[in-house]
Amino acid sequence: MNIIPPEGQRGAPAYLGATAGMRLLDLENKTASDMVLSEVSKTISRYPVDFRGARIISGKEEGSYGWITINYLLESFMKYSFGGRWVRPVSSKIYGALDLGGASTQISFIPKVEIADPGQRADFKLYGFPYSIYTHSFLCYGQNQALKQMLVKAVEGKDLSRPINIPCYPAGYKSTIAQASLYNSPCTVNSAPSSSLVQNINIIGTGNSTQCQDLLKTIYDFNSCTGKDFCSFDGIYQPPVVGNFFAFSAFFYTFDFLNLTSGQDLPTVKSSIQTFCARDWTELQASFPKERMDRLRDYCANANYILTLLLDAYKFNENNWNSISFMKQAADTDIGWTLGYMLNLTNMIPSEAPASVRMQSYDVWIAAVFFIVLTLALGLLMLLLYCR
Ligand SMILES: Nc1ncnc2c1ncn2[C@@H]1O[C@H](COP(=O)(O)OP(=O)(O)O)[C@@H](O)[C@H]1O
């Protein structure tokens, strides 16, 4: 309400889209998630805007709208050639999107090969050109749920009366967690032991990147990809990654905190994360007194999670690592699925190329030069005729 001028508020379309946190609640307790949506709808309806509804968007929508957002902001879809024709954009100029949330993560890009699984394909027609993108959203692999899965794996089969070492937490970090809290999500509930979950578990951080990555790799099911040609994990089809990517939201937050968003190569990234993880917890707190404690504790775990997700799951490697840009914004606008959602629902991106289009500045410049030359030539001709 602060941003939209009062005279524009009543006509301003407003939508609420909910993502993976609500998808999980919907699985756990549908009545509760319906109540949340109905309450937020009631509240937003009281505002003087054109509210058009609240709903949980699908993972496919979340992945697709993130991809639309970045390419819209970078103007990858718009190719208008001199002469007034729209030409097909160069596909290498179209970016892939990597989004990491709290409860899910999305990967979307235009692959080199035909997309073999229609379940992971989204088709669009934008400005007159068709696009088929590969997109997949992994529920339970957002960073909060991934770390919960990591803790479950760390305590599995251990004697819980003794302290448990957690290599993903900074060296010297100590805490006590309720056993039940590890299994209070649809992402981990099926791993709960049959005994009652009443123990309190003492955990100790050991800050070891290599062991942390080994532990994190156990949360993916790579076996279900055995024998499949193109597969990331959990048996999910994924063609080889190709082209340039933007990695945003939590990919950015974690790498920004570790000063790793300036295009560092993979060995540098790995060694920075290793050094950060090995730092003593007391010293870390003293060095970052303003940082939220839970975030400071999780940066080591999240950074290693990002490495395993990009390298082991999505199969980026040392050669194409630098095709990933870790960004928060493009064209001074925050990147995420929300802008793409809005552009789609308000039909801001036409599916057909506009019949008449504004001239691009380059074309205007050429036209101006042409006009001046023509005027001068005509002037000279008239002068010549007059003198005769
Ligand atoms: N400024 C920040 N610094 C570090 N981590 C953040 C920041 N903002 C959000 N996060 C973390 O990034 C993850 C994704 O956040 P967000 O994109 O808001 O969530 P979601 O996509 O699940 O709605 C969460 O784990 C959240 O705790």
From TrEMBL:
<keyword id="KW-0325">Glycoprotein</keyword>
<dbReference type="GO" id="GO:0045134">
    <property type="term" value="F:UDP phosphatase activity"/>
</dbReference>
<feature type="binding site">
    <location>
        <begin position="102"/>
        <end position="106"/>
    </location>
    <ligand>
        <name>ATP</name>
    </ligand>
</feature>
<keyword id="KW-1003">Cell membrane</keyword>
<keyword id="KW-0460">Magnesium</keyword>
<keyword id="KW-1133">Transmembrane helix</keyword>
<dbReference type="GO" id="GO:0004382">
    <property type="term" value="F:GDP phosphatase activity"/>
</dbReference>
<keyword id="KW-0106">Calcium</keyword>
<dbReference type="Pfam" id="PF01150">
    <property type="entry name" value="GDA1_CD39"/>
</dbReference>
<keyword id="KW-1015">Disulfide bond</keyword>
<keyword id="KW-0378">Hydrolase</keyword>
<dbReference type="GO" id="GO:0004050">
    <property type="term" value="F:apyrase activity"/>
</dbReference>
<comment type="similarity">
    <text>Belongs to the GDA1/CD39 NTPase family.</text>
</comment>
<keyword id="KW-0067">ATP-binding</keyword>
<feature type="active site" description="Proton acceptor">
    <location>
        <position position="62"/>
    </location>
</feature>
<dbReference type="GO" id="GO:0017111">
    <property type="term" value="F:ribonucleoside triphosphate phosphatase activity"/>
</dbReference>
<dbReference type="GO" id="GO:0009134">
    <property type="term" value="P:nucleoside diphosphate catabolic process"/>
</dbReference>
<dbReference type="GO" id="GO:0005524">
    <property type="term" value="F:ATP binding"/>
</dbReference>
<keyword id="KW-0472">Membrane</keyword>
<dbReference type="InterPro" id="IPR000407">
    <property type="entry name" value="GDA1_CD39_NTPase"/>
</dbReference>
<keyword id="KW-0479">Metal-binding</keyword>
<keyword id="KW-0547">Nucleotide-binding</keyword>
<protein>
    <recommendedName>
        <fullName>Ectonucleoside triphosphate diphosphohydrolase 8</fullName>
        <ecNumber>3.6.1.5</ecNumber>
    </recommendedName>
</protein>
<dbReference type="GO" id="GO:0005886">
    <property type="term" value="C:plasma membrane"/>
</dbReference>
<feature type="transmembrane region" description="Helical">
    <location>
        <begin position="364"/>
        <end position="387"/>
    </location>
</feature>
<dbReference type="GO" id="GO:0046872">
    <property type="term" value="F:metal ion binding"/>
</dbReference>
<keyword id="KW-0812">Transmembrane</keyword>
